Amino acid sequence: MHKPMFAPARWGARWGAIVLIGAGMAGCAGTGSRLAGMITPYKVDVVQGNFISREQVQMLQPGMGRQQVREILGTPLMVSVFHSDRWEYVFTLKRPDVEVQTRKLTVFFKDNVMERVEGDEMPTEAEFVASLSTKVSKPKVPQLEATEAQLARFPKAEPAAEPAAAPALPPATSYPPLESPRR
User: Fold this and answer.
1) The domain 46-133: what is its CATH number?
2) What is the DSSP annotation of 142-179?
3) What is the rounded distance in angstroms from the CA atom of residue 56 to the CA atom of residue 77?
4) What are the average pLDDT values for consecutive 10-residue runs of the chain, which has 183 residues?
5) Is the pTM of this model over 0.70?
6) How far apart (Å, rounded) are the C-alpha atoms in residues 104 and 88?
7) What is the Cα–Cα distance from 68 to 113, expressed in whole angstroms?
8) Cα–Cα distance for residue pair 20/100, rounded to 1 Å
């Protein structure tokens, strides 16, 4: 005879456990909300595409072949089947609590030779690196000195008596050997 997977006798125990867990969590609602306010999830920086610097764009010259352009800029993010005469380079950087950075550059070819470049004004490598470090905020430094009013709340401590000085031991005149004698 085959027993059903969810026997009615077990349902009572399962529902009882669920009710107890729910009641326990409801009792800790105030603590749970405070704890949830202190814990924040890790947010990932999302980088998509190729970063193209101003220095790279300045290296491009009309008349360069596709391979030369690829060596300078890298593989394009988008190459359309319908527009094989242009390469699209798109760079997007999404970071928590920072405005999204998006830059686009289009390279146009005619007869497999670069004709022109159109797109956004690209930052230098130094400018881009500097924009990355703005995410880190300076933490607020706590006040490390107590005011007179704060110190007045505590009882004044009695000055501790100085312990009696222990008699000085005479310096050692002989020391044990550093190595054991060989046999």
Assistant:
1) 3.30.1450.10
2) PP-S--HHHHHTSPPPPPPPPPPPPPPPPPPS----SS
3) 16
4) 57 71 62 65 83 91 92 85 87 86 92 92 86 63 77 78 73 78 67
5) no
6) 7
7) 10
8) 45
